[in-house]
């Protein structure tokens, strides 16, 4: 079973996270730390005691925004250790997902934490530690009402966004950020999956990080050999390998 350390400077959030972790049968023990500095001391002590020592830690459930040393700082420090614990970020902020996955985080869980979402993160950590056989992680949300909508989470509530309202999609690690005129939503679906799913709906890849809806392209710009598109007020670069296909698609759309 996993030995976990939860780190959060907000006491109610830390207590709730510890409660949920201790209720999971894959967690053998879960302790809390009120800041990253305290967590670092505990992790150092755990590493000194060895993987089978009484202070060993398998996975750290880590808040990001904390005073002093923050969660990303701590994860960067841990990445330099010879045998660091796994890291799962648990945060109220969507904007750090790319940095989190660059640091090889196991998962990125948004607050308020739902029991089933945290259980998924525990499954992934357990699979990496060999505590359980690897299971395919279900994407979140796990269902959609019809092909014209996609389910997103906002404040712990599942809502449905019309695909036709999505102007473009941005890759963020294992996640994708859906952009609409009214805001953006983070979903745990790879960009390649959305590209395949929505190709027939007029979405096209323009860059390794961007998928755009042709109907929402306002301008195609050429400047000193570089190609970009204007979607609303946002200008997105088109990679050289995708430029010709995009021009052809826009031309057929104009003349068709």
From TrEMBL:
The modification 4-aspartylphosphate is found at residue 63. CDD domains: REC_LytTR_AlgR-like. Residues 3-126 form the Response regulatory domain. Residues 124-144 are annotated as: Disordered. It holds the Pfam family LytTR. GO terms for molecular function: DNA binding. Keywords: DNA-binding, Phosphoprotein. Gene3D superfamilies: 3.40.50.2300, LytTr DNA-binding domain. Residues 150-252 form the HTH LytTR-type domain. This is LytTR family DNA-binding domain-containing protein. It comes from Streptomyces prasinosporus. The lineage of its organism: Bacteria, Bacillati, Actinomycetota, Actinomycetes, Kitasatosporales.
């Amino acid at each position: 079973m996993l030995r976990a350390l939860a780190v959060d400077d907000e006491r109610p959030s830390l207590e709730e996270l510890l409660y949920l972790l201790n209720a999971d049968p894959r967690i053998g023990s879960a302790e809390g730390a009120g800041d990253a500095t305290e967590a670092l001391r505990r992790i150092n002590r755990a590493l000194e005691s060895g993987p089978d020592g009484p202070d060993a830690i398998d996975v750290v459930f880590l808040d990001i925004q904390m005073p002093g040393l923050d969660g990303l700082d701590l994860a960067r420090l841990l990445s330099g250790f010879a045998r660091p614990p796994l890291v799962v970020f648990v945060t109220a902020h969507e904007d750090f997902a790319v940095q989190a996955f660059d640091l090889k985080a196991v998962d990125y869980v948004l607050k308020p934490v739902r029991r089933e979402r945290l259980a998924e993160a525990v499954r992934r950590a357990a699979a990496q530690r060999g505590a359980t056989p690897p299971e395919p992680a279900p994407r979140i949300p796990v269902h959609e009402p019809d092909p014209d909508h996609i389910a997103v989470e906002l404040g712990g509530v599942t809502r449905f966004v019309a695909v036709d309202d999505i102007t473009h999609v941005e890759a963020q690690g294992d996640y994708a950020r859906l952009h609409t005129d009214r805001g953006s939503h983070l979903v745990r679906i790879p960009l390649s999956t959305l590209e395949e799913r929505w190709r027939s709906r007029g979405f096209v890849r323009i860059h390794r990080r961007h998928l755009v809806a042709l109907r929402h392209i306002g301008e195609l710009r050429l400047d000193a050999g570089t190609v970009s598109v204007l979607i609303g007020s946002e200008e997105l670069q088109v990679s050289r390998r995708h430029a010709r296909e995009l021009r052809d698609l826009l031309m057929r759309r104009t003349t068709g």
